[in-house]
From TrEMBL, chain A:
InterPro entries on file: CT_A_B, Cyclophilin-like_dom_sf, PxpC
Transmembrane segments: none
Domain Carboxyltransferase as annotated: residue spans: 23-315
UniProt GO molecular function: ATP binding; hydrolase activity; lyase activity
Keywords associated with the record: ATP-binding, Hydrolase, Lyase, Nucleotide-binding
Coiled coil: none
Keyword Phosphoprotein appears in the UniProt entry: no
UniProt cross-references to SMART domains, sorted A to Z: AHS2
Protein name: 5-oxoprolinase/urea amidolyase family protein
UniProtKB/TrEMBL annotation, chain B:
Keywords: ATP-binding, Hydrolase, Nucleotide-binding, Transferase
Entry keyword annotation includes rRNA-binding: no
Protein name: Carboxyltransferase domain-containing protein
Organism per entry: Bacillus aerolatus
Gene Ontology molecular function: ATP binding; hydrolase activity; transferase activity
Source organism superkingdom: Bacteria
Pfam families cross-referenced by the UniProt entry: CT_C_D
The keyword Manganese is assigned to this record: no
Lineage: Bacteria, Bacillati, Bacillota, Bacilli, Bacillales
Carboxyltransferase domain mapped to chain residues: 7-237
Amino acid sequence: MLHILEPGLKSTIQDAGRFGFYHMGVPPAGAADKYSFLLGNVLLGNPRHYAGLEMMMKGPVIEFQKKTVIVLTGAPADATLNGEKLPLWQPAAVSPGDVLAVGNIREGVFTYLAVSGGLATPEMLGSRSACFASGFTGVLGRMLLKGDFLPLNEPLPGVLRQVGKRVPEEALPAFSRELDLHLVLGITSDRISDEGLTGLLNKEWTIHTQSNRVAYRLHGGRVRYVKEDAPFGSGNSPGNIVDIPYPIGGVIVPNEEELIILLNDGTGGGGFVTTGTVISTDLSLLAQAKPQSKVRFHAVTVDQAFQLRREQEQLIEKVKSMIQQA
Amino acid sequence: MLIFPETRFDFCGDEYIYAEISKDMRIESNFKAISITNELRNRDIPGMIEIYPGNASYLIRYDPNEISPYHLLDYLQEIDQQKSDRSELNFSSRIIEIPVWYNDTITEKTMKKYQHLQPEAGGDDFTFVMKANGFTDKDAFISAHSSTPYFITSLGFKPGTAWGFPLGVRNDKVIQAPKYKSPRAYTPGEAVGVGGAFTVVYPTESTGSYQLIGLSAVPVYDPGQSLSVFHDSFFLAKPGDLWKYRPITEAEFYNIREEVKKRTYEYKIKPVQFSVEQYDEKGTTYISQLMEGF
């Protein structure tokens, strides 16, 4: 069991996501910074989808009631184990009675706790991820509360060998207040004027404080629509389209002065002009960007998007092979 | 005769393919979207993670580590060709009755609270929508909204939210409404809203931008599965179903709510085979035929 002594600001259970129900309006949910989350599981030799904790801005205080191995990944946080500094990205053994305190998260937004064998909390529609929009009961529909007890699975074979190992420097993500995001243009970008695309790509955008796991909002540039009538069935404003299924990472233009980029709790569909999709590897970076961070967009071809994905995949494989050595 | 537009495909980032059948809402685009996505679901192709029919489009999420995006695109184009033949388009559908208290006093409170968001409606969405569609009489408007079944074109927004588009109605007679330009922070669960050419029932309390015209007495989403209709699925709606709104009084509304609470409510449902070919040939006559005995 994990005994939650203090819940932190907004801690939730997350795994790799809930799939197969997006078309019924159920968001995938899952870790916002998938890359850091995955590395946590990889470092412990867990399968990639095993559930852990996602902690936002200020982490929880947790008492362990089982002997196991844990690792913290993601945004740098002031973490201690029994009062002693606990470094991120480095598996550590814990025993019953040990207390982990994850304090303030300094750069970035989300820090992750992975546990060998994963959390054994209830599943809904094939996932343990909490999703506030879904109306699920218990820890599946809310943040953690003081006094929660979260069951753990048994630690996996060989995990004690991982204690003290470290992620190679090159695989560590950067946490920055200036981001370069790659997007593939398309979807309904024909409703954006040439001038509008220039406004999207050549201007610096700022992440608004009203940003969360559902979507990040950005201001600062101006994206002009083309001057033509909205199609039948869409409503009647130039920013309306006949409602479409939105991809996660979709760059939505609800009015000419705002961008909405959907994250993993994103609402499945809607009727605003959508001009492209941020590539999956960059969504982890975006999720970790604090409000007021600056963003520049770079249009890439779909082949470039696959190449960037492969490069990240190779880094994960590298960590995995390090872990699997005797 | 239905003519199916050519689908335009687009890669979205590195995990999605978006297929746009038409930009404007045409029921034939939706027939095609549902039919293709049903077919894909049946084929159960490894690496395909989400198969999502939209109103006039569809979206596929895939794992590029498992399936080549370019092979997948070829494959989708092939199925798209095949499903451009109307005789290929048949659905196992259900007609479901949704009892609605139109122009109710509960959503009225919400509209009043948010009337600053659209001053032109004066805090009365019902009358705003009624007038915008050329009606002066409330009963005539309610009758127009509830006389024909709505085809469930897709789901999204929040779990269980289903878009419905009226069958057998000329475009210029379809009840339409603009959306709130800035969304409400709150909408009561089960509120009935109109936005664009679509009617939805809000499954749970949520934000919202559709004009509110009534309140459903019955739930459309139930993750607790308290009513028998939800035993196989949390979601009442399935793309391809037909929803028939039935106007009810305030008294009847509370009677049904009581039955729902006691878990004794039985939805009125009729399974039908929906044939696009027959709909195309016989139009409203075909709909009357489907609705027989309902």
